[in-house]
Amino acid sequence: MKPLVGFFIILISFSFLFIGCTEDDNVITITFNVGRDPTAAHHTLIRHFEEQYPHIRVQVVESPQDASLQHDLYVTRFAGKDRSIDVIGLDVIWIAEFARAGWLRPLNDLAEELPMEDFLPGPIEACTYRDTLYAIPWFTDAGLLYYRSDLLTDYGFEEPDTWDDLENIVTTIRNDHPHLSGLLIQGEQYEGLICNVMEFIWSHGGDVWDETGEWRLATPAAEEALQRLIDYIRNYDITPRGVLTYQEEESRHVFQDGRAIFLRNWPYVWELANNPASGSNVVGNVGIAPLPGKEPGLHAATLGGWNLGISAYSEHPEESWKLIRFFMEHEQMKRFSIEGGRLPTRISLYSDPEILEHSPYFEDLYEVFINARPRPVTPHYSQISDIMQVNIHRALLGRITVREALERIDAEVQALFERYGR
Ligand code: GLC
């Protein structure tokens, strides 16, 4: 367990002492456990919920935005049968693991109250484990390429379709602006690194599974993809070395300060980079495109996203469901999408004029969103991700070769499958 996880557990435990003190007899307090959201859009929703349901109070318990750290925090709390978790925001990649461990309430019956046919199929599938629904998709995510539209226009460039195009654009613009970074990614050793790396691998025609459905990452396509990323960082100065310590927010800040040409990130950046209140220096000069591919059209985006579930140890499942149902209402999801820049999970919102006015790119990139690809779906995903993070990060630091990293990952993942099954 990372030392930070212990620190947050102590912090969270203390906050519950205070909840206990303030609860009045007729009001039930439930906790809403989520990662920190830089747009803070869920706070408005909760205020509206409390107005509509005066007998329910919602205590927001925020954990760090780092998805890996959040995961470890919840695993520790669930393993201790912590009853203080009611509603929980779940990353798409945790659902199989948490459902199998028995930590989440099945939601099939309750979900009949929602227009399930209006939800995007990919996220619903990600919330389903062995034919049972364990969470409702709240917002979805897909990796995107942000660019400085003013600079590309000045130099007469179109959006890059291939990685070669991107390199050419960076090299040309940096000739005149050497202080600008080319492409920013999230390269720290944490979950975000895997999202970035999978996009490189898929966009070179690779995958973690071979044609027979067996795990095999050490392929020429994956090797070429990772080598390209390493060359960007270590040899060609397309990507600054600082990215090896960047998560989403660090890279967003550098981009919206106006210090980079390209940024790979999730949709929430659109709202913040175009909002002067967020301190952005690039308002109105931001474009969005699918991530480039090795060949024209070989675009790939990692499927991300957050889903709402109810802890199996919650003492307030009814109230918890009311909160989830409220968040899924058309109007609330719309508000959340507009204020937080998040991709809705309800299909009908993609043709809503107000949403499209605010985020016009939703229409152009809808195909990218619905074709976003899942990371390996297995209850052992967290361990697989740890194995990949360690070895890939070491390769990015130049401590082992790409080939060594890929072979070690294959050997360790195969050993994991032999021990626990898939
Ligand atoms: C975003 C995605 C999530 C992913 C995380 C990695 O929050 O929605 O799926 O695991 O980023 O940093």
Low-confidence stretches: none
**What's the CATH H-level superfamily name of the largest domain?**
Periplasmic binding protein-like II
Number of strands: 12
Nearest-angstrom radius of gyration?
Answer: 22 Å
Tally of individual domains: 2
Q: Say what the CATH topology of the largest domain is.
A: D-Maltodextrin-Binding Protein, domain 2
Written description of the protein model:
With 422 residues, the chain is α/β, with parallel strands linked by helices. The protein folds into 2 domains: 25-141 and 303-370, D-Maltodextrin-Binding Protein, domain 2 (3-Layer(aba) Sandwich), CATH 3.40.190.10; 144-300 and 378-420, Periplasmic binding protein-like II (D-Maltodextrin-Binding Protein, domain 2, 3-Layer(aba) Sandwich), CATH 3.40.190. It is 46% helix and 14% strand. The protein is built from 19 helices and 12 strands. It has helices at 3-22, 41-52, 67-79, 95-100, 108-111, 121-126, 149-154, 163-176, 191-202, 220-235, 248-256, 268-273, 317-327, 330-340, 353-358, 361-364, 366-370, 381-396, 402-420; strands at residues 28-35, 56-63, 87-91, 128-129, 132-133, 136-142, 144-148, 181-184, 260-265, 286-289, 303-310, 343-344. Strands 2-1-3-11-6-12 form a 6-stranded mixed β-sheet, sandwiched between helices. Strands 8-9-7-10 form a 4-stranded mixed β-sheet. α2 links the parallel β1 (28-35) and β2. The radius of gyration is 22 Å and the shape is globular. The structure holds alpha-D-glucopyranose (GLC). Residues 67, 91-93, 141, 191-192, 195, 248, 266, 304-306 line the site of alpha-D-glucopyranose (GLC). Residues 67, 91-93, 141, 191-192, 195, 248, 266, 304-306 line the site of alpha-D-glucopyranose.
